[in-house]
Write a structure and sequence with these properties.
Number of strands: 24
Distance between the termini: 35 Å
Bound molecules: adenosine-5'-diphosphate, magnesium ion
Helix content: 40-55%
CATH topology of the domain at 257-447: Rossmann fold
CATH architecture of the domain at 257-447: 3-Layer(aba) Sandwich
């Protein structure tokens, strides 16, 4: 077989050479012809229009015009040196400015020379300027493939300094496509292409770089997005079937005495229908002989803890140990006390292990764990330290955790080819599209119902100037016997500014709510654990009316008597965080409130966030809005360890329809041929090996 032309080293592309190849390599990870071809433009701009200088204003986007240099000046010295060229076309003149690469520009830009100029006009000192425009000799213009739109490519500072600009990349694409167009091997079978009416790969790649029309561009984008998401789904779903067959799980064959006693005598309330459904799903999985990997999604306050407790009881009933891992010490100790309270009358032992557990207690815990004396262990990340050895760990529950990596590390507890069952609970609802992709190999359960009697939280947005009104409202609520959270943003633990905001805020609240009539507690991340604990206890016990805090209370804290959540500088929080914080109230039967305080100066995006929060309390709706506003980058970022794919063209937020469609197609194919062994499917398995070689290893590790 002839070597694939797309695998050829990029340095062999005319006009590139070893030096530029190295830069492309380092800066953009472009090593081969194929890498360059799949380096897609981030936008397309109409290039049929040429401007006259008199028509150019500072608010235009990228423009092009032709003109003649009339004068060149240099100003400043040393590092502040800049070069200004005046250019005119008879209708007017404007200035072109450079700060870097002056030596090279000076040789190029001489009075009398004509240029085709591309750039983004800006206004500086009332004059129109183009900073670092791209300059081309109109006579020496390289013939490019005809196209209706001009493509723009992301470059880096380093590349720009070496004059590898977006235009230069476009020229490289031009040369590359002239060489390879018509010779690129198709990556989808004809049957699929015909059935879905997709353009062929050669045409799709040509049109993404040099669109022949807007319509053809759309079709090209559509095909490339479909293909990317299709292979992603095919890869994930194929691994999922593979894993199910390979990994054995402990069998929880029965529901025993502990569970039954709890269910019949100690259940504090009737389970919701959703909680019951999820329990059935978990029982089915854990009884099947295969290892469970289940993601439990449920909005804040939907009662996930109870599901965790009952699942752990089933594990213990079957002779296994169980552990419950929380992201913070506060949350771990809260879980510990909840468990102690509701399991008090049952014959089993529960322990807690966190970073601040003393060595003496730790040693005792370690011993009891190894001997099997301890049935349930609650804790923080300290649970996954190597020194923590269980006798027979059957179930791991991870609470409020959207970090995929932990679930994978938990596989360390593998024993005789069996891995404990995993239940990952998250209160940050993950939009369907993202769950399908990132958690593609997990089963998903959803608690889509809140316990009865909850009233939707009323959310309002106040500007800072309305603080007196806010305090009045707070006094009224306290008068009704209610408690109030006031939360300050904390972007990073080391930001001194943030602590100053918090302390100033605390002082102003104490002034407005003075002792002895009022008690105000404070909790933040830089306090010693014992002081944090004291502050929390003051609030939990009901002695403190107001808790001033940072986001340490974001997850899981449960004080049903708290009815007001005030979020200061709410514009600094993301949607999912705002939703989490709001979820701290509305846990009792009384009406609860969330008040978002912001300054008058708001970006459009922040305004949109406030509007979304005021408009809905549905976590899934908020998660979808968040994904649209922000893109999935952040979410994916936190899951990098479990997400071995890089999306080049599709966006999980915006392309959810294509994703769902791609998934359906992948399912149809795998249903008929789970290992892709049939000859007519060889194109898929070949493509998978090429695209996701890491994914193949990944499934072997687990
Ligand atoms: P989350 O899903 O946010 O972790 P929790 O498990 O903390 O929610 O439950 C929130 C509150 O709802 C708790 O006070 C809990 O006791 C209560 N709760 C849970 N399940 C039910 C139910 N079926 N009926 C009534 N209250 C419930
Ligand atoms: Mg919880």
């Amino acid at each position: 077989m002839k070597a694939d032309i797309l695998e050829r080293d990029i340095k062999f592309l005319p006009g590139v050479g070893p030096k530029r190849a190295e830069l492309l390599n380092k800066e953009l990870k472009i090593c081969s012809f194929g890498d360059l071809l799949y380096y897609f433009p981030y936008k397309h701009v109409d290039r049929t229009r040429f401007y006259k200088i008199s028509q150019i204003s500072g608010d235009l986007p990228y423009i092009q015009f032709e003109g003649q240099i009339t004068r060149v000046d240099t100003a400043g010295g040393g590092r502040n040196m800049r070069l200004t060229a005046h250019i005119s076309d008879g209708t007017g003149s404007l200035e072109l400015v450079w700060f870097r690469g002056l030596k090279w520009i000076k040789d190029l830009v001489k009075p009398g020379k004509k240029f085709l100029v591309y750039g983004k006009p800006t206004v500086f000192n009332n004059k129109i300027n183009l900073v670092h425009p791209e300059m081309e000799d109109p006579e020496k213009q390289e013939k490019t493939i005809n196209s209706a739109l001009q493509s723009f490519y992301i470059t880096s500072e380093k590349l720009k300094n070496s004059f590898i600009t977006s235009r230069v990349i476009q020229k490289m694409q031009n040369r590359l496509l002239s060489l390879v167009y018509g010779k690129i091997a198709e990556t989808l079978p004809d049957t699929l292409i015909n059935r879905l009416d997709l353009p062929g790969l050669n045409d799709a790649l040509l049109n993404i770089h040099f669109p022949q029309s807007i319509e053809k561009l759309k079709k090209a984008e559509n095909r490339l997005k479909f293909e990317e998401l299709f292979y992603l789904q095919l890869s994930i779903l194929k691994q999922k079937t593979g894993r199910k067959e390979k990994v054995k799980g402990f069998v929880f064959g029965k529901v025993g005495a502990l569970f039954n006693k709890f269910y019949n005598d100690h259940l504090p309330f009737e389970l919701t229908a959703a909680q019951k459904r999820v329990m059935r799903e978990i029982r089915k999985d854990t009884g099947s002989g295969k290892q469970m990997n289940r993601l439990l999604q449920g909005d804040v306050g939907s009662g996930k803890t109870l599901v965790a407790v009952m699942s752990m009881l089933i594990a213990v009933d079957n002779g296994f140990q169980a552990c419950l891992m929380a992201p913070t010490e506060i949350l771990a100790s809260q879980h510990f006390s909840t468990l102690n309270k509701i399991l008090e009358k049952l014959p089993l032992s529960v322990g807690i292990l966190t970073g601040s557990t003393r060595k003496k207690e730790r040693d005792i815990l370690h011993r009891q764990l190894r001997s099997g004396e301890l049935n349930i262990l609650v804790g923080t990340h300290a649970l996954i330290e190597e020194s923590v050895q269980f006798d027979e760990l059957g179930l791991v529950v991870i609470d409020e955790q959207h970090r995929f990596g932990v679930a994978q590390r938990a596989r360390m507890w593998k024993k005789n080819h069996s891995i404990p069952h995993m239940l990952v609970m998250t209160a940050t609802p993950i939009p369907r599209t993202l769950a399908m992709t990132v958690y593609g190999d997990l089963e998903v359960s959803v608690i889509d119902e809140l316990p009865p009697g909850r009233k939707p939280i009323v959310t309002s947005h106040f500007f800072d100037t309305k603080r007196e009104r806010l305090f009045g409202f707070m006094r009224k609520q306290i008068g009704l016997g209610k408690q109030i959270y006031v939360v300050y943003p904390l972007i990073s633990e080391s930001e001194k500014m943030d602590y100053k905001d918090l302390e100033d805020g605390y002082l102003s609240i104490v002034r407005a709510f003075p002792p002895p009539d009022y008690v105000v507690a404070i909790v933040h991340g830089q306090m010693k654990p014992e002081n944090k604990e004291t502050g929390m206890q003051q609030f939990i016990s009901g002695r403190a009316h107001i808790l001033v805090a940072t986001t340490v209370i974001e997850v899981g804290v449960d004080v049903p008597n708290a009815s007001v959540m005030v979020i200061e500088s709410a514009e600094r929080f993301g949607l999912s965080q705002l939703h989490q914080l709001r979820g701290r109230v509305g846990r009792g039967a009384d009406q609860s409130y969330c008040i978002l305080m912001t300054s008058h100066k708001l970006s459009n995006e922040a305004r949109q966030r406030m509007k979304t929060m005021v408009g809905t309390t549905d976590g899934f709706e908020i998660a979808e809005a968040d994904l649209k506003l922000r893109g999935p980058g952040d979410l994916e970022g936190t899951m990098q360890s479990g997400f071995p794919f890089e999306l080049k063209i599709s966006n999980l937020g915006r392309d959810s329809r294509i994703l769902e469609y791609a998934r359906q197609q992948a399912i149809i194919i795998l249903d008929a041929d789970p290992v892709l062994g049939k000859p007519e499917n060889s194109i898929y398995s070949r493509q998978l090996k090429k695209l996701h070689p890491r994914a193949e290893d990944w499934s072997k590790i687990s």
